[in-house]
Amino acid sequence: MESLAPLILLAGPTGVGKTALSLHLASRLETEIVNADSMQVYRDMDIGTAKPLPQERSRFPHHLLDVANPDEPFDAARYLRLAKPVVDRLHAGDKIPLVVGGTGLYMKVLTRGICQGPPEDLGVRHALKEEMDEKGPASMHARLARVDPAASDRIHPHDRQRILRALEVHRITGRPLSAWQGEHRFHEDHFQVIGIFLHRNRQELYRRINERVLRMMDAGFLGEARELLERGYGPELKPMQSLGYKQLVAHLMGRCSLTEAVEEIKKQTRRYAKRQMTWFRGDSRFQWLPADDRDRALEWIEARLSGT
Fold first, then answer.
1. pTM, two decimal places
2. Which CATH number fits domain 122-183: 3.30.1330.20, 3.40.50.1100, 3.30.70.250, 1.10.20.140?
3. How far apart are CA 20 and CA 4, in angstroms?
């Protein structure tokens, strides 16, 4: 059997230090970086997503950053369509792609594929969209909970696109989307996956998260959120409902003080980091390594590449 092409996955909770290590590894391995952060795909959302700085991006090519506007639908299927050709081009050039981020679902679909389900039905989709415009996403999410509880548990009540798709699949086929997905077990990797999950002592990680939020505010995070609103990106959009932006938009709309918004960002970021650790703890392909031990990370990769 032909051996699988290697693919490095560098994951970790928000604020752990993935960017710094990714630059070090890209230099040592002479490769390029592929983003796997679900928010860094959006243009004009730089500070709040902790996107690599221009000077960092200039050192090595970074792919899958700034590929969608905040009002464009973007999901795991679109990520796969964009990321797979990049990975293939890097392999064709004898480079080992370095996939970096904290969105486990994107790494999962890149390495194991995705369940597409039945083709879209534009008539059904249009009818459901009209209903959502009239009744709101919360009502449609409640409907999804009745016909597909498993899917509703995974889909955020404000995620219009995924709610519509799940309801569309059920209306077209009479079967829940979760049943379609259950038939695609995601058991087989399409690459030789070399997974690293960076970790820190929880107290240290939370301290770093709190400090990073303050640095973001000093760098102009509030102005970035205000400018997005002024450009017509409404608070109902999925990216504007994301961590940090949601809280600052609430402040800009007069619902809370700036101090309250910042403290809420810190709290919700810490909770998000905990959820990330839970997700990756269930994936045996990842070796958990201390975030500050760059040499150990490189040694782990080289050992896997050599088959030892």
1. 0.82
2. 1.10.20.140
3. 28
